[in-house]
Protein backbone atom coordinates (compact mmCIF):
# COMPACT_ATOMS: atom_id res chain seq x y z
CA UNK A 1 0.00 0.00 0.00
CA UNK A 2 2.85 2.32 -0.82
CA UNK A 3 3.82 4.93 -3.36
CA UNK A 4 7.33 5.69 -4.64
CA UNK A 5 10.29 4.10 -2.92
CA UNK A 6 12.75 6.93 -3.48
CA UNK A 7 12.73 10.36 -5.07
CA UNK A 8 13.12 13.97 -4.11
CA UNK A 9 9.98 16.02 -3.55
CA UNK A 10 10.17 19.13 -5.69
CA UNK A 11 8.48 21.99 -3.85
CA UNK A 12 8.33 25.61 -4.86
CA UNK A 13 10.02 28.16 -2.62
CA UNK A 14 7.96 28.64 0.53
CA UNK A 15 5.65 25.73 -0.28
CA UNK A 16 4.57 23.48 2.60
CA UNK A 17 4.34 19.70 2.41
CA UNK A 18 0.79 18.38 2.61
CA UNK A 19 1.35 16.49 5.85
CA UNK A 20 2.44 19.76 7.51
CA UNK A 21 -0.85 21.35 6.39
CA UNK A 22 -2.76 18.41 7.85
CA UNK A 23 -0.98 18.73 11.18
CA UNK A 24 -1.69 22.45 11.29
CA UNK A 25 -5.40 21.85 10.64
CA UNK A 26 -5.52 19.21 13.38
CA UNK A 27 -3.79 21.24 16.10
CA UNK A 28 -6.94 22.98 17.45
CA UNK A 29 -8.59 19.57 17.88
CA UNK A 30 -5.56 18.12 19.65
CA UNK A 31 -5.09 20.95 22.13
CA UNK A 32 -5.31 19.82 25.75
CA UNK A 33 -5.66 16.12 24.86
CA UNK A 34 -3.36 13.25 25.76
CA UNK A 35 -2.81 9.75 24.39
CA UNK A 36 -4.62 7.31 26.66
CA UNK A 37 -3.70 4.03 24.98
CA UNK A 38 -2.01 2.61 21.89
CA UNK A 39 -1.52 -0.73 20.14
CA UNK A 40 1.24 -1.14 17.56
CA UNK A 41 0.16 -4.26 15.72
CA UNK A 42 1.68 -6.13 12.83
CA UNK A 43 -0.79 -4.65 10.33
CA UNK A 44 -2.40 -1.64 12.00
CA UNK A 45 -1.85 0.94 14.74
CA UNK A 46 -4.66 1.85 17.15
CA UNK A 47 -4.65 5.00 19.27
CA UNK A 48 -7.13 6.20 21.90
CA UNK A 49 -7.17 9.80 23.13
CA UNK A 50 -8.26 10.70 26.64
CA UNK A 51 -11.50 12.11 25.21
CA UNK A 52 -12.40 8.61 23.94
CA UNK A 53 -11.79 9.22 20.23
CA UNK A 54 -10.02 6.45 18.32
CA UNK A 55 -7.64 6.57 15.39
CA UNK A 56 -6.23 3.79 13.22
CA UNK A 57 -3.42 3.84 10.67
CA UNK A 58 -1.56 1.28 8.58
CA UNK A 59 1.81 -0.25 9.46
CA UNK A 60 4.32 0.06 6.62
CA UNK A 61 6.60 -2.90 7.28
CA UNK A 62 8.76 -2.97 4.17
CA UNK A 63 11.34 -0.39 5.24
CA UNK A 64 11.59 -1.24 8.95
CA UNK A 65 14.88 -2.28 10.48
CA UNK A 66 15.59 -5.85 11.50
CA UNK A 67 15.88 -6.74 15.16
CA UNK A 68 13.81 -7.44 18.24
CA UNK A 69 13.41 -3.84 19.42
CA UNK A 70 12.86 -1.78 16.31
CA UNK A 71 10.36 0.62 17.90
CA UNK A 72 11.40 1.53 21.45
CA UNK A 73 9.37 4.75 21.22
CA UNK A 74 6.16 2.79 21.83
CA UNK A 75 6.72 2.81 25.59
CA UNK A 76 6.91 6.61 25.58
CA UNK A 77 3.53 7.31 23.99
CA UNK A 78 0.88 6.66 26.67
CA UNK A 79 0.10 9.75 28.72
CA UNK A 80 1.91 12.08 26.33
CA UNK A 81 0.46 15.29 24.95
CA UNK A 82 -1.49 14.35 21.81
CA UNK A 83 -0.21 17.30 19.82
CA UNK A 84 3.38 16.30 20.56
CA UNK A 85 2.80 12.74 19.33
CA UNK A 86 0.87 14.00 16.27
CA UNK A 87 4.00 15.90 15.25
CA UNK A 88 5.60 12.51 14.58
CA UNK A 89 3.54 12.45 11.38
CA UNK A 90 5.94 15.13 10.10
CA UNK A 91 9.21 14.50 11.93
CA UNK A 92 9.04 10.80 12.81
CA UNK A 93 12.26 8.84 12.38
CA UNK A 94 10.64 5.88 10.60
CA UNK A 95 7.38 4.75 9.01
CA UNK A 96 5.97 3.37 12.26
CA UNK A 97 6.60 6.56 14.23
CA UNK A 98 5.03 8.62 11.45
CA UNK A 99 2.10 6.20 11.36
CA UNK A 100 1.50 6.68 15.09
CA UNK A 101 1.38 10.43 14.45
CA UNK A 102 -1.18 9.90 11.68
CA UNK A 103 -3.34 7.71 13.95
CA UNK A 104 -3.43 10.49 16.56
CA UNK A 105 -4.41 13.02 13.89
CA UNK A 106 -7.14 10.68 12.61
CA UNK A 107 -8.53 10.35 16.14
CA UNK A 108 -8.70 14.14 16.46
CA UNK A 109 -10.88 14.44 13.34
CA UNK A 110 -13.89 12.97 15.18
CA UNK A 111 -14.79 16.48 16.36
CA UNK A 112 -15.48 17.64 12.80
CA UNK A 113 -18.83 17.71 11.06
CA UNK A 114 -18.22 15.95 7.76
CA UNK A 115 -20.80 15.53 5.00
CA UNK A 116 -20.58 12.12 3.37
CA UNK A 117 -20.68 12.31 -0.45
CA UNK A 118 -20.97 8.53 -0.93
CA UNK A 119 -24.05 7.18 -2.72
CA UNK A 120 -24.88 3.79 -4.30
CA UNK A 121 -24.57 5.39 -7.74
CA UNK A 122 -21.37 7.32 -6.99
CA UNK A 123 -19.10 5.42 -4.59
CA UNK A 124 -17.08 7.89 -2.51
CA UNK A 125 -18.92 10.67 -4.34
CA UNK A 126 -16.92 10.03 -7.52
CA UNK A 127 -18.55 9.63 -10.94
CA UNK A 128 -16.58 7.06 -12.95
CA UNK A 129 -17.01 7.24 -16.73
CA UNK A 130 -16.64 4.35 -19.16
CA UNK A 131 -13.81 6.23 -20.87
CA UNK A 132 -11.83 6.78 -17.65
CA UNK A 133 -8.44 5.40 -16.73
CA UNK A 134 -8.03 4.95 -12.97
CA UNK A 135 -4.63 4.97 -11.28
CA UNK A 136 -4.42 3.35 -7.84
CA UNK A 137 -1.41 3.88 -5.58
CA UNK A 138 -1.64 1.15 -2.96
CA UNK A 139 -3.71 -1.88 -3.88
CA UNK A 140 -6.98 -1.94 -1.94
CA UNK A 141 -8.95 -4.90 -3.37
CA UNK A 142 -12.50 -3.83 -2.36
CA UNK A 143 -12.00 -0.37 -3.89
CA UNK A 144 -10.46 -1.82 -7.05
CA UNK A 145 -13.43 -4.19 -7.35
CA UNK A 146 -15.87 -1.33 -6.82
CA UNK A 147 -14.38 1.22 -9.22
CA UNK A 148 -12.46 -0.84 -11.76
CA UNK A 149 -15.39 -2.37 -13.68
CA UNK A 150 -16.89 1.08 -14.24
CA UNK A 151 -13.77 2.39 -16.03
CA UNK A 152 -11.97 1.63 -19.28
CA UNK A 153 -8.76 0.72 -17.49
CA UNK A 154 -7.25 0.54 -14.01
CA UNK A 155 -3.52 0.88 -13.35
CA UNK A 156 -2.30 -0.33 -9.95
CA UNK A 157 0.98 0.42 -8.19
CA UNK A 158 1.91 -1.16 -4.87
CA UNK A 159 5.42 -1.08 -3.46
CA UNK A 160 4.78 -3.77 -0.86
CA UNK A 161 3.67 -6.22 -3.53
CA UNK A 162 6.51 -5.13 -5.84
CA UNK A 163 9.13 -5.71 -3.13
CA UNK A 164 7.68 -8.77 -1.41
CA UNK A 165 6.01 -10.58 -4.31
CA UNK A 166 2.44 -11.71 -4.84
CA UNK A 167 -0.31 -10.51 -7.18
CA UNK A 168 2.06 -10.92 -10.13
CA UNK A 169 0.75 -9.54 -13.39
CA UNK A 170 -1.75 -7.27 -11.64
CA UNK A 171 0.62 -4.55 -10.41
CA UNK A 172 2.63 -2.18 -12.62
CA UNK A 173 6.35 -1.59 -12.01
CA UNK A 174 6.93 1.40 -9.73
CA UNK A 175 9.20 3.09 -12.27
CA UNK A 176 6.21 3.46 -14.61
CA UNK A 177 4.46 5.98 -12.31
CA UNK A 178 5.84 9.15 -13.96
CA UNK A 179 4.78 7.81 -17.36
CA UNK A 180 1.33 6.44 -16.53
CA UNK A 181 -0.12 8.62 -13.74
CA UNK A 182 -0.38 11.76 -15.94
CA UNK A 183 -2.66 9.73 -18.22
CA UNK A 184 -5.14 8.90 -15.44
CA UNK A 185 -8.53 10.61 -15.20
CA UNK A 186 -9.03 9.41 -11.61
CA UNK A 187 -6.24 8.75 -9.12
CA UNK A 188 -6.74 6.84 -5.87
CA UNK A 189 -3.96 7.51 -3.36
CA UNK A 190 -3.63 5.42 -0.22
CA UNK A 191 -3.37 7.53 2.93
CA UNK A 192 -0.09 5.69 3.54
CA UNK A 193 1.54 7.99 0.97
CA UNK A 194 1.35 10.67 3.67
CA UNK A 195 3.30 8.37 5.98
CA UNK A 196 6.13 7.39 3.65
CA UNK A 197 6.58 10.91 2.26
CA UNK A 198 5.58 10.21 -1.35
CA UNK A 199 2.27 12.11 -1.37
CA UNK A 200 3.51 15.47 -2.68
CA UNK A 201 5.58 13.93 -5.45
CA UNK A 202 2.71 11.73 -6.57
CA UNK A 203 0.38 14.74 -6.75
CA UNK A 204 2.82 16.41 -9.11
CA UNK A 205 2.34 13.45 -11.47
CA UNK A 206 -1.44 13.98 -11.65
CA UNK A 207 -1.91 17.42 -13.27
CA UNK A 208 -4.65 16.18 -15.61
CA UNK A 209 -6.71 14.12 -13.18
CA UNK A 210 -10.39 15.03 -12.81
CA UNK A 211 -10.63 13.34 -9.41
CA UNK A 212 -7.92 12.60 -6.85
CA UNK A 213 -8.99 10.54 -3.86
CA UNK A 214 -7.09 9.89 -0.64
CA UNK A 215 -8.41 6.67 0.82
CA UNK A 216 -7.95 4.18 3.64
CA UNK A 217 -7.65 4.07 7.42
CA UNK A 218 -4.55 6.32 7.34
CA UNK A 219 -6.46 9.15 5.66
CA UNK A 220 -6.58 12.21 7.95
CA UNK A 221 -10.11 13.60 7.62
CA UNK A 222 -9.37 17.32 7.57
CA UNK A 223 -10.80 18.66 4.27
CA UNK A 224 -9.61 22.22 4.93
CA UNK A 225 -6.02 21.02 4.85
CA UNK A 226 -6.41 19.72 1.29
CA UNK A 227 -7.96 22.78 -0.31
CA UNK A 228 -5.99 23.86 -3.35
CA UNK A 229 -3.99 20.61 -3.44
CA UNK A 230 -5.89 18.98 -6.29
CA UNK A 231 -7.40 16.35 -3.98
CA UNK A 232 -11.17 16.17 -4.47
CA UNK A 233 -12.28 13.47 -2.00
CA UNK A 234 -11.13 12.08 1.35
CA UNK A 235 -12.36 8.55 1.98
CA UNK A 236 -11.52 7.39 5.49
CA UNK A 237 -13.10 6.02 8.65
CA UNK A 238 -14.10 6.97 12.13
CA UNK A 239 -14.32 4.26 14.77
CA UNK A 240 -17.12 3.40 17.18
CA UNK A 241 -15.69 4.02 20.63
CA UNK A 242 -18.07 1.55 22.27
CA UNK A 243 -16.15 -1.23 20.49
CA UNK A 244 -12.68 -0.13 21.52
CA UNK A 245 -11.95 -3.39 23.33
CA UNK A 246 -12.82 -5.40 20.22
CA UNK A 247 -10.64 -3.13 18.06
CA UNK A 248 -7.81 -3.32 20.58
CA UNK A 249 -7.90 -7.12 20.60
CA UNK A 250 -8.17 -7.58 16.85
CA UNK A 251 -5.29 -5.25 16.07
CA UNK A 252 -3.13 -6.90 18.74
CA UNK A 253 -3.80 -10.17 16.88
CA UNK A 254 -2.51 -8.70 13.59
CA UNK A 255 -5.99 -8.27 12.09
CA UNK A 256 -6.37 -6.20 8.95
CA UNK A 257 -9.09 -3.83 7.80
CA UNK A 258 -11.30 -6.68 6.58
CA UNK A 259 -11.86 -7.69 10.21
CA UNK A 260 -12.58 -4.17 11.45
CA UNK A 261 -15.23 -2.98 9.01
CA UNK A 262 -18.21 -3.59 11.31
CA UNK A 263 -16.79 -1.12 13.84
CA UNK A 264 -16.15 1.69 11.37
CA UNK A 265 -18.08 4.77 10.30
CA UNK A 266 -17.17 5.43 6.67
CA UNK A 267 -16.77 9.04 5.61
CA UNK A 268 -16.20 10.45 2.11
CA UNK A 269 -16.29 14.26 2.24
CA UNK A 270 -15.57 16.21 -0.94
CA UNK A 271 -13.04 19.03 -0.91
CA UNK A 272 -14.59 22.40 -1.72
CA UNK A 273 -12.94 24.07 -4.70
CA UNK A 274 -11.42 27.42 -3.87
Structural features, described:
By secondary structure, this protein is α/β, with parallel strands linked by helices. The protein has a domain at 123-238 and 263-267: Rossmann fold. 25% of the residues lie in helices and 18% in strands. The protein has 9 helices and 9 strands. The strands form 2 sheets. A 6-stranded mixed sheet has the order 5-4-6-7-8-9, with no helix packed on it. Strands 1-2-3 form a 3-stranded antiparallel sheet. The protein is globular and about 50 Å long. The relative contact order is 0.19.
Layout of helices and strands:
Elements: H1 18-30, E1 35-40, E2 44-49, E3 54-58, H2 82-86, H3 88-91, H4 95-108, E4 133-137, H5 141-147, E5 153-157, H6 159-164, H7 177-180, E6 186-190, H8 199-204, E7 211-215, E8 233-239, H9 244-252, E9 264-267
Low-pLDDT segments, ≥5 res: 1-14, 163-169
- How many strand units? 9
Q: What overall form do the CA principal axes indicate? A: globular
- Give a short account of the largest sheet: 6 strands, mixed
Average pLDDT metric: 88
In the CATH hierarchy, the third-tier topology of the domain at 123-238 and 263-267 is known as Rossmann fold
In spatial order, strands of the major sheet run 5-4-6-7-8-9
CATH architecture label name of the domain at 123-238 and 263-267: 3-Layer(aba) Sandwich
Fraction of residues in β-strands: 15-25%
Count of helical regions = 9
Radius of gyration: 18 Å
**Could you give the distance between the termini?**
30 Å
**Percent helix:** 10-25%
